[in-house]
Specification:
The protein has about 280 residues and is α/β, with parallel strands linked by helices. It contains 10 helices and 9 strands. The protein has a 9-stranded mixed sheet, sandwiched between helices. Helix 7 runs parallel beside helix 8. The N terminus is likely disordered.
Length: about 280
């Protein structure tokens, strides 16, 4: 049984850490699982699941990159109390020193059109993308474990993936590669510039069919996010072409003055949660 490392007594649920979760595909890493607070009815409630990248930044400011966490436990509890969503289990997957390589979408860079981006990426990071292996870990190893250990709703309609920056890229790629596993993706401050138009177009051209999936995107206007708007607008055009209905199964939001940081994502995380979980 998992051991809780930070149980909450104030009604914001409980977290369990699965330390050094093993994998055949990638290096082991911690996985944190948050469960909503019991409603007191004694019923065996089953929940949707959100798989999130950069898991160490989600719940504990002492672990987070800038000393500010996303406050995912508080955000989800707040939405439940406000009756804006039924709640969900949150699975926080810690990143590794190979984060860039694990989060960079792999297939688009293997094409002839992607070779220039691939060469530059290898020069910058020291190797090719490893995202296909990361997604196999997520789908073949981690999800079955979570579904066996926790009261989940395991079908695609109740399974989402979410992240920010490079975590936004890998979340979109997960939905594209495994549309029968994930029903939606939340992509905050997606780091499009690492692949520029080549990556945007490659991913946009293979979006899952509209009507069965939900996609959320956003971006700010300061620091790294200042470069994102034209690339996001390009992806928005692909979504329209694919038949996604803005406000229904796709939403893109611009946050004026928002920077590229956990602090900014904490302030607006209610938006993707409410959109995906509604």
């Amino acid at each position: 049984m998992p051991l809780p490392y930070a149980p909450f007594s104030d009604g914001t649920g409980a977290i369990a850490r699965h330390a050094d979760f093993p994998s055949r595909y990638i290096a082991s890493r911690h996985v944190d699982v948050w469960r909503p607070p019991e409603d007191g009815s004694g019923s065996a409630t089953r929940y949707p699941v959100i798989y999130m990248q950069d898991g160490q930044n989600l719940f504990d400011p002492a672990l987070s990159f800038i000393g500010v966490d996303w406050g995912m436990d508080e955000a989800m509890t707040r939405l439940i109390r406000e009756k804006r969503c039924p709640g969900a289990i949150i699975v926080g997957i810690w990143n590794s020193p190979l984060r860039l390589r694990e989060y960079m979408p792999q297939t688009p860079l293997m094409s002839s059109q992607g070779q220039r981006v691939l060469s530059r990426f290898i020069e910058q990071t020291g190797g090719k993308p490893l995202s296909d292996g990361y997604l196999k870990f997520l789908v073949e190893e981690l999800k079955p474990f979570v579904d066996a250990r926790y009261p989940t709703l395991p079908d695609p309609a109740h399974t989402w993936v979410m992240g920010s920056s490079m975590g936004g890229l890998i979340s979109l790629y997960a939905l594209i590669e495994y549309p029968d596993v994930f029903g939606g993706a939340g992509c905050l401050s997606t780091h499009w510039p690492i692949g520029e138009g080549t990556l945007v177009d490659a991913l946009g051209a293979v979006l899952p069919p509209a009507g069965q999936h939900r996609l959320y995107f956003d971006y700010g206007t300061e620091t790294l996010d200042a470069d994102y708007e034209p690339w996001q607008q390009r992806m928005d055009e692909w979504l329209r072409t694919a038949g996604y209905r803005e406000g229904q199964d796709w939403l893109t939001r611009k946050f004026e003055g928002a920077e590229h940081s956990e602090r900014a994502w904490r302030e607006r995380v209610d938006w993707p949660l409410a959109f995906l979980l509604r």
